[in-house]
Amino acid sequence: MLEQQRENGNATIYQYQLIRKFHIPRLLLLFYLLFPIPVLLVGTLWFSWPVLVYMPLAFLLVLWIHFVVSHSVLLIRGSIYRKKWRLRFSGIWLGFLPDQHTGYSVLQQVLLQNLWIGFVFIGVLIAWLPLPLTLALLFWHLWFMAPRLSILFSMRGQRKDIMIKLNPQDISFYVQ
């Protein structure tokens, strides 16, 4: 059967068949990566210089929240999943994300947990944090989650046994 798949051109090294590939346009990537600069400028105009301290602080705090939540969900799912994830800073993929092919159900669970736990965390802290820091936390949380949620929205109505590979320039969807 393996020989037959190789002859037909349907097999890959990992025996995953590519079903869809979304290319990330350079303009979109550039817009995404530069979007925090105007937000920082507007925040500085509205709230003065403390925003220059709050934005980097909020960036690190949201990155840490996403790491802890992702790592916890993967720990609950089993140690095999944790080995496939690492901190990535390539292209549009920033944060604790899969480095290899990963199942759609695992990725969906981690991303949705990150989304709602991030909002709950910010909501709990809103009473004690200054408004500019709260807005910075909210901005970075949404900024990190935007490309990740695009994966979930693009996969609505698809099979659940799909494997996803996040590359710097594209998102590839495979089936075993």
Mean pLDDT: 84
By helix and strand content, what is the structural category? alpha+beta
Query: How does the major sheet shape up?
Result: 4 strands, antiparallel
Specify the helix fraction band: 55-70%
Low-confidence stretches: 1-7
Shape estimate: globular
Q: What's the order of the H and E elements?
A: HEHHHHEEEHHEE
Strands ordered across the widest β-sheet: 1-6-5-4
N/C terminus separation: 14 Å
Q: How many domain regions?
A: 1
Strand content: 15-25%
Kindly provide the radius of gyration, computed on alpha-carbon positions and rounded to a whole number of angstroms.
19 Å
Tally of extended strands? 6
What's the number of helices? 7
Secondary structure layout:
Elements: H1 2-8, E1 17-23, H2 26-34, H3 36-47, H4 51-77, H5 79-82, E2 85-90, E3 93-98, E4 102-103, H6 104-125, H7 131-154, E5 162-166, E6 170-175
Antiparallel strand pairs: 1-6, 2-3, 4-5, 5-6
Helix pairs in contact: 4-6, 4-7, 6-7
Describe, in plain words, how this protein is organized in 3D:
This protein has 176 residues and is α+β, with helices and mostly antiparallel strands. It has one domain (18-175). Helix content is 60%, strand content 18%. The chain has seven helices and six strands, in the order αβααααβββααββ. It has a four-stranded antiparallel sheet with strand order 1-6-5-4. A two-stranded antiparallel sheet has the order 2-3. A hairpin with a 2-residue loop joins strand 2 (85-90) and strand 3. Helix 6 packs antiparallel against helix 7. The model is unreliable at 1-7 (pLDDT under 50).
